[in-house]
Amino acid sequence: MGIVGALRTELPGAVIDYLADTAVYPYGEQDDGFLTARIVSLIQDAVIRLDSDVVVVACNTASTLALEALRDVCPVPVVGCVPPIRWAARVSRTRVIGLLATKATVGRPYVASLQAQFAPDCTLIAHGARHLADCAEGVFRGRKADPALIRRELSGLFGHPDGGKIDAVALGCTHYTFLIDAFREVSPVDVVWLDPAVAVARQTAAVLGCAPAIWATEGSGRVWFTAPPHEAAGLESGLRGFGYAAPELWQFPFPAGVPA
Fold it and tell me: CA-based, 20 to 30 A from 24: which of 41, 79, 175, 217?
């Protein structure tokens, strides 16, 4: 939803339909081949049914796995969200940067490729956090983040032998937008936290060839989940803050070999 918020700001009036594949949450615990096939099938179906102009893959795991495959088959442009390692390298003075993401994202070759291409002179300290996405989901539903949990997870970065030199941390999970304030509260004051949401929104506008406020009507859209949500009341309250009504269930007959 952090990227939806940035899109609402960058493209006011746009119709933003949101589809969350909650049936297999969290993606980081699924097999890569299964996920790639599922993501491609799901988004192909959504593009047809929603008559989309662009697809924004607002998930680092999905982007690092399936962007190439999606761009091969989608009839509309596809904008991905990948860890902002290049941005971290641009702003770092110490040349020691951090990456906070899920375990699945941290371990993928895509991340090593990003460092080799955009931050070859930097030391990258990456931590794959298991519990932060769930914590962020709770914050979205109105709960407060647990400071002890945040400290434990961030110790994977700042507790590293070179962790005291980190001056920029790239966020590699779109859930973490809702935890930035909590991260800042328990981390060194000179650390810059880099959330790619605004960059993704601006790239989407560029792909569409749109200037801000191109649409005259108030933004709208619908939200779907592939499985019934838990804690529905808190979820719906959070969704209203991003311009959505209650979520609907997305019905999709996944092909053979792509379990629903």
Answer: 79
Cβ atoms of 192 and 73 closer than 8 Å:
no
Closest CA to 108 of 143, 150, 59: 59
CA dihedral 82, 182, 186, 191 (to 10 degrees): 40
CB-CB contact of 169 with 84 (8 Å):
no
Residues marked active site are found at 59, 173
Cis peptide before 84 (omega within 30 of 0): no
Under a CB-based contact definition with an 8 Å cutoff, are residues 36 and 66 in contact? yes
How big is the chain by its Cα radius of gyration, in Å? 18
Is 23:260 a contact under the CB 8 Å cutoff? yes
pTM of the prediction? 0.88
CB 62 within 8 A of CB 43: no
Residue 8 Cα to chain centre, angstroms:
16
| Contact of 187 with 163, CB cutoff 8 Å | no
CA distances, 43 to each of 31, 53, 151, 164, 230 (Å): 18, 13, 36, 41, 23
pLDDT digits (tens, 9 = 90+) for 199-250: 999 999 999 987 554 444 555 899 999 998 777 778 888 998 888 988 899 9
Spans of the chain, pLDDT less than 70: 211-219, 253-260
The span from the CA of 84 to the CA of 107, in Å, is 16
Taking the C-alpha atoms of residue 107 and residue 128, their distance in angstroms, rounded to an integer, is 8
